[in-house]
Amino acid sequence: MRVAVIVIALVISFPASAEDNRHGYWWKEEAPEVMQLDIPPPEPAKEADKPEFVAKPAPPSEEELLELHPTEVAKLISEYRQNALWKMSPETVGWYYELQDFSRRRARAFMNVTEMTMLQRPELNMNSVYPTTPPGQQARVAQRTAAIEGQLSAERGNAALLLFTRPDCPYCPTQRNMLRYFEQKHGWQVREIDISANPQAAARFSADVVPMTAVIFKGTNDWFPVSVGVESLPKIEESVSRALRHLRGETTPEQFTMQQHQSGGLLDPTRR
Q: Which of 58, 61, 86, 146 has CA atoms 20 to 30 A from the CA of 46?
C-alpha cells in the first residue's frame, strides 16, 4: 500500500510525459537551418609561368668588353656558359671561351701591373718582411730565433713557468718533458702545481684544464697563459716570448703575435 502511494505521488509531481523532452538529433529531429555566408569559392591555383630562355647572340666586341665593369663581365661569362651548355654547338661553345680568353688576359694584365707597382712602391711589397725564396726564408727564421732566444735570456731571472697538472692527466708527463727541455736550454725555473692538491692556485690562475702552462713575473701578480695541452719546444718558446712582450706593455692584443722588429712594418696591424 505504501509503495502504491509513493508511485502516485511521483506521477502527480511529474505530470509532463518523458516524451515531451525528447528533442534533438537522436530523436530524429532535423537540425535548424544554419545561416550560409556568402564566401566565393577559391580560385584555382595558377600555374607558374615557365621562364622563356632566349638564345644568346654573338658576345660583345673587345672594345665593348673593355668598357664593362668586371662584375658585368663575370655575369656575361656565366650566361654564355649556360647558353653553350644549352645549345651545345661549336659556335656557342666558342663564344663562351672567347669571353674566358678575355677574362684570362685581363687577369694577366692585372698581375703585370701589380709586379711593376710592387717595385715602384716598396712600402707595399711583402717580400721586404716575408721573403718567399729559400735564402730569404732561412734569414727570416734565423732573425726570429735570435729575437726569441735573446728575450728569453734577458728575462731568465725575472720570470718563471708554472705547469698545472693532475695525477690522472694522460698528457701531463709529455708536457712536463717539454718543459724540462725548456728549463735545460734557457735556464728558467719551472714549477709544477697539482691542481687537485692545490685548488686555490688552480682558481687563481684559472687552471680548469690540464696540462696548462703559464708565465709569471717573480715577486708580482703579473702572469699570462702560455699553452693549453701539449706543445712543442719551439711553440713554447714563441708563446713565452709573446706573453713576456705583452706583459711588458710592448704589444696590444692586436699586435700579440708580432716580434719587436716587426713593429711599424707591413705585419703590424696598427700601422698607419
A: 86
